[in-house]
Amino acid sequence: MDELKEIKSEPQDRAAEKSISIWKFFLVIIRLPEDEPDEDPNAMHRTQKDHWIGWLLNYFGPGFYGRQNWKRDARFVYNHVVNPKLLIYLIRAIPLRPELVEAAENAYTQSGNTMMAQSGAIRKVVPWSEIYQAIWGKEEPKPSLFDRIRSFFGDRRKKLPQATEE
After folding, report:
1. What is the pLDDT of residues 10-41, one digit of tens each?
2. Most confident listed range (55-69, 113-127, 128-142)
3. How far apart are alpha carbons 125 and 55 in whole angstroms?
4. CA 102 vs CA 43, 76, 97, 109: distances in Å
């Protein structure tokens, strides 16, 4: 367990994080690569990707657990996943630093016998801020409507033929 303490996630500015809707998180998950099918014949999902998709879709209503509050965001979902295999799949599938992926895998295998303990240990190494940065932190800010209009007309103005005096 001592080696888990050595790898620390970089502190992130939470103010820079935007709340990410579950729908937007879902759209990221469905674009991730497939993982290996689960060998367990009692598994409810073929893969962890399928498991994520089903888990997220259940947040658009009461779901399996009869949720009363459906107005949650992706951070809430990530922080409430109890199945460590879901977290490990996500961490492996997104562009995280290799040392964080390895630390998460070590946390999973060295953190106890319950899924809750394993998931908690994984999230200590890879908190939501790391997931957010890996997925959305590199997004370029979108230009404002004004900037797009100015750019459009600015480009057009340059292409107009110059009037000549006769």
Report:
1. 445 554 678 999 999 999 999 999 999 988 88
2. 113-127
3. 22
4. 25, 24, 9, 11
Tell me, letter by letter, the H, E, C secondary structure of 32-84: CCCCCCCCCCCCCCCCHHHHHHHHHHHHHCCCCCCCCCCCCEHHHHHHHCCCH
pTM: 0.72
User: Within 13 A of 108's CA, how many CA atoms are on the CB side?
Assistant: 17
DSSP string, 101-149: HHHHHHHHHHS-SSHHHHHHHHHHHS-HHHHHHHHHTTPPPPPPHHHHH
Rounded to whole angstroms, the Cα distance separating 36 from 84 reads: 15
Give the helix/strand (H/E) hosting 16: none
Q: Could you tell me which residue, 81 or 151, shows the higher pLDDT?
A: 81
